[in-house]
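Replying to the earlier thread about multi-chain prediction with a worked example.

Input:
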Amino acid sequence: MSPRILDILKEVSTDRIRILPCERTSLDAYLSPYSNAHEHAISSSFETRPPSSGYTRVPSSGSNLSILTYFMDGSRRTYQIADIVDDGSRYMPLVAGQVGVAVLKRDREGRLSPMRDLCDFSLILAFPDRIDEQALKGYQHDIKDRTGMSLELARYSTRVDVGENLLDKGVAAIMRRMHDAEVRAVERLADANQLDGYNWLVIDGPLRFKEMSTRRLDVLQFQYVLGLSKSFRPGFTVGRGRHKADIGAIAANLGFGQRTGTFRAEHDHNRLGVWYLRLRRKWQSPLQGTVKAECYALAKAHECGLDSDTVDALSSHLLRERNVTPYGVDPRWANHIYPIFCSENYVKSSFISDASFLALF
Amino acid sequence: MDNQIVGKVTATERQPSTCTTVRFWVHRDVLLAPFDVIKIEHIGRDGATTFSYAIVQELEYITDSVGHLASYVSSDFGQVETVPFNQRIGTTVATAEVIYNTRGVEMPIRDGAQVHWADADGIRAALGMDDYEESIPAGYIHTSNGLRIPVDLNLDYLIGPEGAHLNISGISGLSTKTSYAMFLLNALQQRIQNDVTIIIFNVKGRDLLSLDRDSEQLSDGDRQNWEHCGLAARPFENVRYLYPFDGDRRDQGYTNSRPVPEILEDQIGNNVAHNYHFEVERDIGKLPFLFSDIDDPGATMESIAHEIAGWDDVTTWEQLREQVSFRTQKGQSGDKSISVMSWRKFNRLLRARTDHGVFCEAFTYGNPRQTQLESEVLGLTPGQVLVIDIEPLPDYLQRYVVGNVIHTVYSALLGDIDTEVKFRKVVVFADELNKYAPRSAGATSALTQNMLEITERGRSLGMVLFAAEQFRSGVHDRVLGNCGTNVFGRTSPVEMAKCPDYRYFPRTYQSAATRLEQGTLLIQHAVYKTALIKINFPRPSYYQPK
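Result:
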C-alpha cells in the first residue's frame, strides 16, 4: 500500500515547516459561482449593422449541419487538506485539487464524442509561496518515487490584500492550472487547423482568458471561439447615454429567437463583442432561457465591431442548440446547451471521487 | 468476427454485477438479441485471465433523459416537427445471465470488462454440451453474428436412465410441436436405432400416416439444416401403421381412418398397415381406461370394472353387454356393495362407448389384416416404429387406446405379462396430453394414474413419454414436473398468465414466446446450464399430405 502524501511531506520537509492536520473540507462552495468581477465592462453598440430597436430576430439557420462543432468545459474540485506552519509565524492552508478540461466533438449525425488528445486531467497541490520552487521539486520527486503518482505542485501568493484570504489564493492557483489547460486545448485545435468558419468551438462561460503562467496569450488563436454564459447579472448596465439600460430589462423584452445588438467589452487588453439571445420561449422567469454570447473582436472587427452576419449565423445555430435539453437533471437547463452539459458531465465523471481523492493524503 | 468487442461491462451502485447477472453496454454498431451468448473477460487465480459466458436476457436502451417530460421539452415543448442538432447520449444496456466460466470462477464480473461474441465451441461448452457421453441432436442456434451452432440433448437425460420424458407445449396451427417431436424421434432412430422402439399416436389429420415416405417439400437448404445437425434428411424406417378396425368399411380398407388412398395401398402392399381391434378376452381388464373421463368420486365405476375383469366366461363384447345389462335388474343375488343404480350407469356408458367397430372378435369380417392391439404392441422389436391412428375415434376411445397401449408396454416392461417381449426401451409420443393427464383430474382416473406411473417410474424401466399439448396449464403438474426436457412453442399471453411454469421466464423471454416463428422453439433441458435456449430445427423429412 502506498504511503499517504502528507506522511511523505512530513518526512521530507525541513524543520522550518510543520504540516498539521486539519478538518478536510471541500472549498468549492468558497467561490461564488459567477461573481461580478468576471463581467466584462460593456459599453457601446459594436457590430457592423446594429439593430435599430436594440434587438433583432435571428434568421433561421436553414441547415441541418451546425457550424458549432467543438465544445469545451473546464471544471475543478478543491479541498483544504492540511495546514502549514512556517517558522512558527505563519499559518497557511495546503490546498489540493483536481482539474479537468474536456473537449467534445459533434459529428454530422449529432453524436458527441470526446477528443481525448485535448482532454486534460490533473491532480494539483498548492503550497504557499514561502516554500521555494526547489523544495517543491524535491517534494514532487519524492511523491512520484514513493507513490508512483504524478502530482503537479503549484504556489500561491501569501500577500493578502483587504477582502482576500489565503484559501482563495490557493484555490486561484489551482484555477490557474485549469485556465492554462483550457488555453492549451484551444491552441492545439487552432494549430491543427480544426477551427474555421464552419467549425467553431463553444466554451462554457465568458472569454476571460488572461496571459498564461508561462507565456503570452495568443488571442488570434481564438478567432473561431464562442463564449457562452448560462447566467449573468441582470442589474449589469450596458449601453451609453439614453440607451443605457440594465441587461435584465433588455433581456426581459427579448422574444423567443431574438437577440440584442452586440456590445463592446474590454478585457485584459483584448476587445470582445457581447450579445444576449433568448433560446426558449418565456417560461417562469424573464431571464430563463436567455444566454450571453461573446467573441473576440479581431482584425477588422477590432475597430468596426463584429460582423452582423456572423453574429446572426452564430445566434441562429445557437438557437438550434435548444434541443435536446437536460431538463430535470440540471436546474439551469433552460440556459444550458446540451453539448456543454455533456462536456461538463464528462469532466466531472472523470474526477476521482472525493473520498478516494482525500484518501491519497 | 468472434473477437470483435461488442461492449463493456457496467457495474453500478444500484445495478451491480452478481454471481449470476452481468450488465454491459453495447457498441452502437452491434445488433444483439435475447438468447445470444456472449463471452466476457474475467479474473482468474494467480492473475490469469478467464472467460465467462452469459446469455442475453434483456436489452434496454437508455438515455440521460430523466423522464418522458424531458424528451417532450427537448422537442420544443411538444413540437413534433422539431429536428435537433444534438443526439441525446444513449446506449443499449444488455442484461445477461452468467452461465459458465472457463476456470469455474464465480466472482461477479468486474466493471469495464470487455464483452466479445462467443464462438461455437464456447457456446456449446457454456451450455454444458461438451461433456455428454451420448447425445441426440436437438436443432441449432442462430446467433446475431451469423453463426449456426448445432445443439444436443444428453441422451441419458432424454430417454433415461438419469432423467427422461419430454413435453412440448404451444398453440396449434404452426406444425411445430409435432414436427419437433418427429425430428427428435427421427434423430433417435438414426443414432440409436437398435436400442429404441417408438410408438406414435396420430391424433390429427394424416400428418403422421406416411412417416416412411420421402418429403417432397425439402429444399437443398432444408437438407443442409439436417446435415448441420449431424443427421440425414430421410424419413423414418421400419414403420408399421395400425388403423382402427371398422367392419362396415370393407371397401375403404376396413377402417374409417383417412390416409391418402394410394399411400394406404402401398402400405397394404408392403404389409405394414393393419387394422386394430379389441377382443373382450384380452381387453376386458383395461375397461377403466374407457371411463377415465367420467367423474367417479365413489370409485363405483372402477369397482364394477374390476369385478367385470374377473368374468372369465365372457367371450364376446355382446355377451359382456348382456351380462352387465342383467345386473341392472332389481333383485339380483350376490354382492350388494354396488348398487343397481351404479350398474345402470355403467351399462349405459358401456353400451354407448363400445358401440364401435374396434370392439369386435378376431377375423369377424374375414379381414386378414385385422389384428389385436395388445398383441401388436407386445410384438414390437427394437428399431421399429408403430404408428397408431386414433384420429377417427371419439375422445373417450382415444383415451382408451392410449391407456391400453401404455398399460400394455408398462406391464410388459415390469414383467407382469406372460409374453416375452423383445423391446427394451420404448418411447411413446402422444399429442393432446391434457386429455390423458389433465390438471383437474387429481389422481383418481385410471389413465392419469397410469401416466403418473410412467413419468415417475417409467425411466428406470425404459418407458419414456414424449408428449405435446396446446396448453401446459391443462396438464397434470406431476406429469410435467417429471419431464427432464421441456419445449415451449409459441403461446398466448393468456396461457402465460394462467400457467405458473411461465413465471420463471424473464420478461423478454415471455414476450419472445408469444412471437416464436414456425420452426423456432424455446427449450429447457435438465443438464443445460441455463433455463432456456432458443433453437431452430429442420423441416420434417417425411411426406406430409396437404
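The first helix of chain B runs from residue 68 to 73.

Feel free to reuse this layout for your own posts.
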